[in-house]
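help with this.
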Amino acid sequence: MKIAIGGVVNEINTFSSFETTVELFKQRTWERGETILSNHRGVRDYLGGMIDRAEALGIEVIPTFAAFAEPAGKITRETYETIKSELAAGIQAAGTVDAICLSLHGAGVVVGIDDMEGDLLQYVRSQVGYELPLIVTLDLHGNLTEKMVAEANVLLGVHLYPHTDCYERGIEAVDIAEQMVKGGLQTAMHLTKLPLMIPTSTTNLSPAKDINAICLEWEKHPDVIDCAFFHGFPYTDHPDVGVSVVAVTRGDQLLAKEVADDVANQIWAKREEFTPQFLSPAEGIRQALAAEGLPIVINETSDNPGGGSPGDGTYLLRAMLEANLQNACFAFIYDPEVAQIAHEAGVGATITVKLGGKVDKLHGEPIELTATVKSLTDGRFIISSSVAKGTHVDLGKSVRLQVGGLDILVCSVRTQVLDEQIYLLHGIDVNTFKIVALKSSQHFRAAFEPISKQIITVDSPGLSTLQFSFFDYKRLTRPIYPLDEISVHSF
């Protein structure tokens, strides 16, 4: 048996002014052929799960093309056409295969195309036809569409946020492909969409945890293959945005609808519970100083590069400087200009710079500061978090600046903080600091919940804020909660 694998993963924040280009993809992942196998074998991501499971089962894996970019603004049309050509060339080069397993996201948007994944799957079908099993893994932040359902045999969403089960979804994709090819498995899917947007919601806690429990209970049914709660991606402005449920069964379409509708009704009943309480940066700092023990982690959810923000927001950092904190650290602010200045100055030098606030005017003004250069690195490390463990990261020229009792990390490539590795790279042991601040919404929890005494989320204006009223939505399907009041709804 032979399967072709590949992936195009990108989550688009349509409010971002940052265009997603080929160059942005190449900063993270742009791989062809055997490079995919060497870079993902044993890594805890979707492709890693596919590769490891196929090889364990004696299935020949034919790698095609894989691309991943840090979330930003819409993908340019030229970039998308290049991606399609690369994927088509990889599939053609694979020759005759028995199935295709693809890692996609679900919230991809191209200039002029709201539903990148649906369009891409339709394009793949135009190349290989509809007889070949096509199994797709998706992020739970996908804005699902009927087109995706129509073009794939199976859509598998991760269940956990932080996404610590990407590897398992890759394994599941291969298992289903084998059952379809060797066992004659027939599948049916149903998508139920809700008029609902929710903010980033960890599945470690209620109410998302409770909905996952309902999904898992349905998966105990002998004819239910998968039941996934898709949170949707609210930082996108188009008609398909919103929460949804996808159920996959062993060919029973009515059962798939029953499962998806049941879970959707239970999500709807809990809709008010998804509304978060949030603190301003200053309030979060005061709460952290009053907390017992260390480290106390403060996450700046409103400037999360993993949600398409620029990563150079200054609201939290400015509040930390104004509080004259001692034994505190911050990771990290995206500012290649300052990183370059520090590298030219050298360790031990004192530099005066304008830090952050350069990409746009939404995330705070640049901070004028004088700092000591404590360490310089190449920004390279390997992720230790269970989110993408084993992935090689390159953040470019990076620096540790010190201002009084505050250590500030500055890097040259945007990304959210997943684990303690960027701190360790610069000689910072987070376990010895009172306050550890970082830019991320939820993924950091996988590494930091086990070691922190408390986690405090702070919010402010930004492209990944918890406050949807911040955005000027134009194209949503209305009404939609919580922007609109909807008294009664059922599925």
